[in-house]
Amino acid sequence: MTRPKDMNDQSLPLKDKIKEIIRDEIIINKLKPGDRIVEIEVAKRLGISQVPVREALRGLEEEGLIRTVKYKGAFVTEINKLEMYHIFSLRASIETNVIEIITPNLTNKKIGELYDIVEKMRREEADYLLQSRLDMQFHRTIIAWSEIETYNRIWSMLNSHIQRYITVLNPTIQIRPEEVYAYHLELVEVLKQKDVQKSKEAFWEHIMKMVL
Hints:
Elements: H1 14-27, E1 36-37, H2 39-46, H3 50-63, E2 66-69, E3 73-76, H4 81-102, H5 108-120, H6 128-145, H7 149-169, H8 177-192, H9 196-208
Antiparallel strand pairs: 1-3, 2-3
């Protein structure tokens, strides 16, 4: 059996590779809210033992993407729309706080890093998971510049929920690659101006428009 591409990534511990695979399946709605995830079936599919699968599921439970029911197993969590509003708001708050921190020290090199990511968003075919990963890379790069580890951890957890929300509850919203490119190019252009308030407003609107 051929293993998923992520299983060949030697930079991550096995449990983290499995966590990424299952997380992606939840995000793209291959694993739907309420679906049961059976350890032995995942282990068999990936050609590994159950131990790293169990560890991966424990990590996903900490992120709030699955819940474990005693004597029944692990299930993909349902999506609460009110909770999602607060998740979007919290992510927007983190990113705008980071904008305030990093703006005075923005260099042409850092702006160039963002331009490089944005250029990768220019694709002819729609690939939600790839677009989503590039989007995440763009924003995660900005969060990392703050050098505040708490922001990095919380942001990553929130972003998984946001990606899933967009996939599951907004199936009719098909943002074309050229639109993804245009949205993020605009954000880079705003950051380049080093106007803190203008940048904060642009990022807040960019994040919250999917839930308002």
